[in-house]
Structures are given as structure tokens and as C-alpha cells.
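Aim 2, interim progress. The first record below pairs a target sequence with its C-alpha cells.
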Amino acid sequence: CPCRIEFFWVGCVYGRNNDAERFGFFCHAALEFLLQSGFHPDIIHCHDWSSAPVAWLFKENYVHYGLSKAQVVFTIHNLEFGAHFIAKAMKYSDKATTVSPTYAREVAGNPAVSPNLHKFHGIINGIDPDIWDPYNDNFIPVPYTSENVVEGKRAAKQALQERLGLKRADLPLVGIITRLTHQKGIHLIKHAIWRTLERGGQVVLLGSAPDPRIQNDFQNLANQLHSSHSDQARLCLSYDEPLSHLIYAGADFILVPSIFEPCGLTQLTAMRYGSIPVVRKTGGLYDTVFDVDHDKDRAQAQGLEPNGFSFDGADAGGVDYALNRAISAWYEGRDWFNSLCKRVMEQDWSWNRPALDYLELYHAARKSAS
């Protein structure tokens, strides 16, 4: 339809003034495709506000046009955006999920969710182990597995230091890979940078801010650090996929101090590369990172060994508590630390287990229909 041409090839996915209209059109088109092609799926699974309209368009219209077989499953990835659409999709869906059990509990009281708790489940996300694979990664200097993690990470750290002009030395290196938004705990990130430098470590941050004021703020910090700690800290305020691989491989720790985090993939990718996550206990971070000092029993209940450092508060004291223990462990017990790197690489954070949980949910949705 020529009148809809302004919906396509607009140079971005989000952030235009007709986002809702564009995604609404997409949802209509998807359902119309199913109808016209005669394809009758058992499950239609839609995600977040952008495909939420599928839930009610299907139930209010397309069921009557002949698409009667499907059950609708709806997943919330982040309740911060499009709550009105999410609330409506929650109402119309047959089953609903979010991307970790803890986030499911954290949002249970939200009015978009609370009337639908009977059909709401938390299933942790996975990562793709083929994309994030230190044994087959063109962006790092030496391929490695858990067996040669020490050598592999040493080579990656040297390459990272060289690329960014940091001091070539065996120092604890903290990596931060994130969007710079309030959700991600930017005040804690800033504090952690200074704390790491005080402890003699190095810091590499990769990320940018959608808000120009925050971007500007971090640009000022980058300039300041370039003057005062040029061989210890580097802030790369852009999107750079190859560099992210090198940071995951070259860092000793990956810091994720989010204020809220529905699932978080950063900590899972970090572990795939043998980097130790240092996280705030929230959402999926709590469900996937088990503190080496405090979470032995909780890890064991999941069939796991402890795999990182975590903290509770959203203040400097909180982040210091986890970061200081992490850096001290690096300085004081390298053999123990290296065995921890090996251990986290051997944990499975792929889609293997979550996929089975989703299959179970799909079967339950079909059963409730019959």
C-alpha cells in the first residue's frame, strides 16, 4: 500500500514519532500473512509492547476470520516501556512470561501484571553459545576453552591493553559493557571506576547513552581520566561489537550494577568467556550469579557452584562490598581465581534449559485450550 511507505526504510527501529503506528501495522501484517497463507500455528508468541497488539488483534478479530487454532503467549522483556500495551496484551494472552523468575516476582504488584498472575511465569533467557564462543571468535587473539582459559585470557588482556593504549601489565581489569541509562546504575558505574583505580586495577568501559546529557557527562569523565589515569582507564563511548568480544575475553571481571535488570545477558556472556561477574542482586542477575562467599547453598539448589560477586544496595557501599572482595581475591589467590574462571566457563547458560521450560509452557497453553 503506497500510503504506508513512510513506515519502512526509516533508518532506525525505535525513536520515531509514529512508533506505535508502525508496529501496529507490522502486527496486522503478521496476522494477515498467517491468514492468507493458510498457516495455522499452535502458538503465537509475541514480545513486549511492539508486538503486543497481536494478542488482542488475534483474539478480537482474527479468531473470527478462521485463525482459530492458536494460543497466544506473551513475554515481557522490560516493563519500563509501553506499559499500556503490555497490560492489554497480558489480559488477552493465554500464557505470559518474563525473562527471569526474580523479575517476575519484582513486577508482580505492577497493575499491568497483577490481574494476570495465574498465567504469569519467569523463565530465564539464554545466550547463543555459537556467537559467544571464545574457541571460535575472530575478534580475540588466541582461541581458548576452559582448559586453557588462563593463557587465552592473558593474550586477550594484552591485546586489549595494546589496542586501547593502556599499560601492558598484569593487573586486575574490570570491564563494563552497557547502555548508559539510569536502569544500568550509572552512579554505581562511576563510583566503581574510581574504586578500581584506587585498588591499582584497570577499567575499560564500552557503551553509549541515548540521552545526550548522560553521553556528555561520560565524555567529560573520559577526558578527565585520559588526563589523570591514561594508562589505567579507557571509556569507549560508542557501539563496537568486535571490541565487546575483546573486553569479555580480556577482562578479569565484568561489572553489572543495574538498578533493575529483567534478565541481563552481559553476566552470562562474561561467564562464557571466563570473566567473573560482579553484579547487583536484582532480577535475572540474582537468578544467574551466585556469590562465592554467601550463595553456596542457593547455587547448590540449582545444581551449580558459586560463580561471582554480588551486592544488595544501590549505593557506593554496596558496590564497594562486592568489588573490593573481587579485586582482593584476584590479588591474594590467583590459583583460586583461575579455577573460578574455569568453573564459570563450564556452566551452561545457553538456551538448552530455558527452551525446555518454554516447550512445557506451550504444551500447557495448548492443553488449557482443549
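The second target in this work package is listed in the same format:
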Amino acid sequence: ASCVQHRLVVRDASSLHIRQLYTCLDQIQYLEWSSDSLFILCAMYKRGIVQVWSLEQPDWHCKIDEGSAGLVASCWSPDGRHILNTTEFHLRITVWSLCTKSVSYIKYPKACQQGVAFTKDGRYVAVAERRDCKDFISIFVCSNWQLLRHFETETQDLFGIEWAPNGCVLAAWDTCLEYKVLLYSLDGRLLSSYRAYEWPLGVKSIAWSPSSQFLAIGSFDEKVRILNHVTWKKITELDHPATISSKKTIVYKEVEKSPTVDTERLSFPPTRALASSLFSTQSKYDISQVPVSLQYIKPVADRANPKVGVGMLAFSADNCFLATKNDNIPNAVWIWDIRKLKLSVVLEQLCTIQYFQWDPCQPRLAVCTGTSRVYLWSPAGCVVVQVPGEGDFQIMSLSWHSSGDSMLLLSKDHFCVCYLETEEV
């Protein structure tokens, strides 16, 4: 699904043929599929309205108007039949049921980076709250939205919460001014508290492994610390130095080359598409000999949100690899072998890393850098894929299909779908 102003366009994922076309009341600012792909939510924050469309019954539609309370966020519950709307100034979260048309309210939600977290099985939801200048977490049962647990957290300014994939442990972390990661059980007991250091800027990013065995914590000190699920103690620290000296680490360096084309031999003037492919610079990977010095940018210390520390990290679907990005070295992706707890590969790009995401079915990483190329890494090696087409298609983000056989590439105003051949083909 994609939106153009107030139009919602639903396409077939394999052929991109238009399946449905819907017209909303205003410009769409956010859209989201339900978990069973039967409904689409379209949020228009400026007007405080949410419209819901049905794929099975195109004539059916639903409109939710928050009125004077306003609207700043909207999302589906995991069952795909309830919508959670957050009102302006985070006064409350309103839970709307599409089945019974009933309404429930969750008071005092906190305005933080990640204040609402569902368990993977969809049975429970945790909500970060702020009351009387103190942080709390409430856990609700999603089947009837009844309160299961409510407890105060040992944080100065709670910044985010995230469930482990098995739904047994909830991680909560403090603001970057206070290095603290807290781990709570489903019944609200504090299982462990972790603090690596005290005074410098603290936690910047967090990621659970798919098996729930590891919790990776990216920090402003350019390190990743991995906690184990048995004792919740640190098992290793992963450094991100500007010089790679280990001979066991493979460094893939992106290089550009301009193709040499003898235009006088062309018996006809090339078309625009052919000319763009003939004369555009091409990219490939070379293996660098260690030691390798990476481009290191010294952050500006007197500005807010300094470009320093590990801001992106993600585990592969098979738990074998961890990909990280150190904002001080913006052109590099670090890939760690979790089985050996060693650095396996570094991808050194020509441009700043914008986003990366693992294939949901196998250890294959897709990377984009704001250019018209997408980069793929797997244990077998690296490949550069040029997006064909006229003009400059700058890929700012990407998203894998759940089957792993295609991915969506997003620029500022356009999108395209990249299909990957399977071994059978």
C-alpha cells in the first residue's frame, strides 16, 4: 500500500498491479496494515482522524474522530481488530474495537521514544507512564484490556521499553544522561539492573536476539555490550575502532569506476535510459588488505544529539550475526559473528549508511546509503545492485518481504520493489 496526498493505492506485491484505490478525507500522514492484511489504517494527524479500509469488502469503511483531543500517533493491536490512538500532549491512549465498537482508555502515557510495546504473541502490551514526576509501567491483557500489573520503575527519565521475543522479559532503559537498563518479568519483578558506567552519555540503542538469549546495548562510548539471559551479566564488549588490524576480519571496500564507452562507434544516438546506464559510474566491492583505516568523524561536542556512538544494531534471523553502525564512522557496517563473539566483516561504503535490515528468513543483510544502489551481504560474499530507471533514485530506507524473496526500496517521493531470484529459478 502507498499513499499519494489523500489517495490510498493498494497494489499486488508480485506484479504491482493496482488492486484497490481509496480516497481519504485529507492528506494521509501514516498508514499501517493489520496483522492479517485484511484492513489498512490511515491516520490524518492534522485533523485528528483515522480511517480504516477493508480489502475483502471495499464498500465497508470506518472513521474514528478524536475530536478536540487531537491525535499524535495511531497503531494496530496484534489481533488486527483494535486501534490504539494517542491524543495530543499524551493525555491518554484510546483503544477502539472494530468488532464491538467499544472504547477503552489508558491514562498518563509517557511521551518517549518507545512507550508502547506488544509481546510477539500479541497477548500483552506494556505502556510507559508518567505520574507525579515518576515513571511507571502498566501491563495490560490485550484480549480484554484489563490491567495485569502496574509498577514504578527505577529510572530518572524512562526513554523506551521493549519485550524479549519470547514475551517473558521486558527491557526498560533510561535517558541518555543516565546509563541504566532494567529487566522486568511479566509480573513486574525487577530481575536485573545493568549499568556500564556513570557520568558520560549512556544508552543509544537496544536490540534483542530472536532467540531472546542475548540483549545487545549500543552506547555513546562507541561500544556494544551483550548481556546473557541466564544471569543478565555482560558476556562481551564489542569495540568499533577506526583501524581494523585483525587478519581474521574481511573488509569489503566499495569502489566506483567510470565505464569507458566509445561513443563514435555507436551507429545511433543512445536513448536516455541507455545513456544513463552507459555513462553512469558503476560500483563494486574490493577486499582491502589489513590494516585498514576507516573514515572517522570527530563529533561536535557542544551540540545536541552528537553524531557519536552505536546508533543502529540488529540481529540476523538465525541469531548467528549482529550488524552495527558506529555514528563516528558513518560509512561502515560492522558484522559480528555471535557464535565466536568476534568481528567477522566490515563493509566500507562511499556514502553514509542510511539504513540496514536483515532478511527475515536467512542471514542476508541489505544496506542503503542514499544512492541508487542497494548492497547485499551474506556469508558467501557481497554484491552491489544498481536500481535501473531514469533520474536519481536515492534509497533512504528499505523493507524486506516476510518471505525474503523481495524488498521494498524507498526514496523521498518514490518506491520500487526489488525481486530476488530463488535457487529453483
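The chain has a mean pLDDT of 92. This observation will shape the mutagenesis plan for the next reporting period.
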